[in-house]
Design a protein that fits this description.
- The protein has 738 residues and is an alpha+beta fold.
- Strand 14 (178-188) and strand 15 form a beta hairpin.
- It starts with a helix and ends in a 5-residue tail after the last strand.
Length: 738
């Protein structure tokens, strides 16, 4: 496989777009993660785009967080907004379904697709690649294709000749949410505009749309709150429309669908700016080119062909979210639900920060730091409008789905790594407010009074909330230090040590305490907890959360009893196969190695902790096991939700041989590389190369590491060094190096 990398390097001066066997997009499989619990979608999108046009096969239940599941054999239609790899269902806005024959306004069921407009399909007749999706709808014999620009989807439907061709527009459709208000209006003989306003996991969410057909509409059948008619303008709670185009000929019907968060007019302007023509292939090729330019920022010499697919699919999944909210002229509906026009460029929503602060945003600080600053501008614009940073924001709405205030480490990490496009004083005010002004998931008065969240005041997740807050506090202290705010630095340094108050010296577990200082009794470290279940942990148990001290691992080692005791307990984590109590109720706790749960983010740094006790070979062995078991080039290849790219970012970092255990520290902890060579093309035309010499299935241990020809001391590499470019060389061996 080295010939691929060498070929690319030889061509680099002329082109970044081609491997020896084709383009980078040839190695991306958007179907990875669409089976079991990955919660990805296979449809077309672009990096951080407003539009994600993808087939929906179901809308209710945890398996349909992205609207599609590989186990299904029928499609409802194609909607234009989707979340990638989340644990809660939402979006699915503005559904289109091409049909033949008489219109029907009910989707029908998976058990009986004939009861509605839903159509059967065969996975063998599906194609998905970055920026493109197609499928044959068997019940109508329609070949449906779709591609896109950032704000506009482009559909192409090939109907059987002489059939009665038509399209259903269903604004009652949504993934796990309910339409609250909708409207459809004809503008001319080819154009419809309207809005869908919905509520669900995202409490208040709306998209305006502009739809334009390549042929004049010949027939209208309207549906509004149960009333069927022939109106060309309808408004109510549930609005749907059938538009007919008469007898199909040999030429496909093309459809453009533009979105806007601001207005119908904005959606139409987006369409006119992005796709003023009817050349589907031109748009498809442009989408492919955009993805190739993004994927070309990294090249890999893989251990086998499957790794090519796994790696580039992980890179693809890491570049999907957050998502654009601004129109081409900067207009958007803000976090305060008012219309604004951005003066700072594009703005974004959809932040799963409990997940993505760990590896995804640190990955952005290396590969696309400018884009990461755009995300921070969006967070700070939200702060200006509503007085608070995001925690888990989707569709411009705070969901408070998870704990922590993890916009804090994202902002601090970027600032400490040199980001200066935002006002540091404003950013500091925002993170300090997030750490001192209570909200739904924080009670700072109790936290500071007791030095932890007492379980008799904070009735659920008290341990996890304390540990996550302590990490955020360390990040605030770091920025306070950088800005010369010594009193604040001391305050937040003190608070960052609150984790010590929950380490029970007898059991050596993180354990809940009440306002009297008494430990939670009875105590079961195997019992899984969650906000919906009660208990003291978040999507995990004490075995998994005891290690959640990313900012002070040496302090945790000392608390647990020193290096030997720490190592022994860490060994136990990976070998204890005792059944998780309550795991049936928390489907996120997956990808188990003993009690370690790779399918859920609190475990992601834990395998790297052996470095702190002088046993890096155990980290190296575990990283290989995670790669072999939990990242596979097939539809069920992810062991948990991809969580907006966090699972994928773990893969990319670990393939390069290091990981951000403490994301805002400016250092990465070494592991074991999983590819022969990886090249990153950094900003300022610099190049970082990782090379693993003698890597093989047997040679999974690291014998030595050098940086630019000099042996690397310790077990970390600095971010600042990576950004200067250079070569990180691992010499691999088949024997653990003690």
């Amino acid at each position: 496989m080295k010939k691929y990398l060498l070929f690319v390097i030889c061509l680099f001066g002329c082109s970044l777009h081609v491997f020896a066997k084709g383009s980078y997009t040839d190695y991306v499989d958007p179907f990875i993660g669409t089976a079991t619990v990955g919660h990805t979608y296979p449809g077309a999108t672009l990096p951080f785009a407003m539009v994600q046009v993808s087939p929906d096969t179901g809308t209710q239940g945890w398996e349909y967080c992205a609207g599609y599941h590989d186990a299904d054999s029928s499609i409802i239609g194609f909607s234009h907004t989707h979340l990638s790899g989340t644990g809660c269902p939402d979006m699915g806005d503005i559904l289109l379904m091409p049909i033949t024959g008489e219109p029907c306004f009910e989707a029908g069921s998976k058990e009986n697709p004939d009861s509605g407009y839903r159509s059967r399909f065969d996975h063998a007749n599906e194609t998905a690649r970055p920026g493109y999706y197609s499928v044959r709808l068997d019940d109508y014999d329609i070949f449906a294709e779709m591609t896109l620009t950032p704000r506009t989807a482009f559909h192409r439907y090939a109907y059987p000749e002489q059939s009665q061709s038509g399209v259903i527009l269903d604004l009652g459709h949504g993934i796990g949410d309910e339409t609250m208000q909708s409207s459809i209006r004809q503008v001319d003989d080819r154009t419809l505009v309207g809005v869908r306003h919905s509520a669900g996991f995202v409490k208040d969410h709306q998209y305006y749309f502009c739809i334009r057909f390549s042929r004049p509409i010949e027939e209208f059948v309207s549906y509004c709150d149960g009333t069927i008619g022939e109106k060309t303008e309808i408004s109510g709670k549930i609005c749907k429309m059938y538009v007919g185009f008469g007898e199909a000929g040999s030429k496909p019907l093309s459809v453009k669908v533009a979105l806007s968060t601001a207005s119908e007019e904005g959606a139409c302007r987006n369409m006119e700016a992005e796709i003023p023509h009817w050349n589907f292939n031109k748009v498809m090729k442009a989408a492919d080119r955009v993805w190739n330019e993004n994927l070309a920022m990294m090249q890999i010499d893989p251990v086998d062909d499957n790794q090519l697919v796994s790696f580039y699919t992980a890179l693809y999944h890491s570049l999907i979210m957050p998502n654009l909210v601004t129109d081409v002229d900067g207009s958007y509906t803000g976090w305060d639900h008012k219309i604004h026009r951005s003066t700072e460029g594009d703005l974004y929503t959809n932040y799963s920060l409990w997940d993505t602060y760990r590896a995804l945003h640190p990955f952005y600080t290396i590969l696309i730091p400018g884009r990461n600053e755009e995300f921070i501008h969006s967070m700070l614009e939200r702060y200006r409008q509503v007085g608070a940073l995001s925690t888990n924001e989707y569709g411009l709405c705070e969901t408070y789905a998870m704990i922590g205030n993890h916009a804090i480490p994202v902002i601090v990490d970027a600032y400490l790594k040199g980001a200066r496009s935002f006002d540091p004083e404003e950013a500091y005010r925002a993170i300090k407010d997030a750490s001192t002004i209570s909200h739904v998931k924080s009670d700072w008065e109790s936290y500071t009074k007791y030095g932890y969240y007492p379980f008799d005041i904070v009735e659920v997740e008290s341990v996890s909330r304390t540990l996550e807050a302590a990490y955020d506090d360390r990040c605030v202290a770091r920025m306070a230090e950088a800005l010369g705010k010594t009193e604040d630095q001391a305050l937040f340094e003190h608070r960052s040590n609150f984790y010590k108050n929950l380490l029970d010296p007898e059991t050596r577990f993180m354990r809940a305490r009440n306002t009297k200082g008494e430990w939670r009794t009875p105590f079961d470290p195997f019992s899984i907890a969650h906000e919906l279940l009660g208990g003291d942990y978040t999507e995990g148990n004490s075995w998994q959360y005891t290690w959640h001290v990313q900012h002070d691992v040496p302090g945790l080692v000392e608390l647990i009893g020193g290096k030997e005791a720490f190592s022994h307990k860490l060994d136990s984590l990976f070998f204890l196969d005792e059944e998780l109590r309550g795991v049936a109720w928390v489907s996120d706790v997956t990808g188990l190695i003993g009690q370690y749960a790779h399918g859920n983010e609190p475990s992601h740094h834990v395998a790297y902790l052996y470095n702190y006790v002088g046993q890096p070979y155990k980290t190296q062995r575990l990283v290989r096991e995670v790669f072999d078991r939990f990242y596979m080039a097939r539809r069920d290849g992810l062991c948990g939700n991809d969580d907006c790219g966090q699972m994928s970012a773990w893969y990319i970092f670990s393939a390069m041989g290091f990981y951000p255990v403490d994301p805002a520290s400016g250092e990465y902890v070494l592991g074991a590389p999983q590819a022969n060579e990886i090249v990153m093309h950094l900003p300022s035309n610099k190049t970082f190369t990782m090379r693993a010499e003698n890597l093989s299935r047997e040679n999974k241990y690291v014998k030595s590491v050098s940086w630019n020809g000099t042996p690397l001391e310790g077990f970390t590499i600095r971010h600042a060094d990576i950004m200067q470019g250079g070569e990180l060389i691992f010499e691999m061996t088949d024997q653990p190096v003690m």
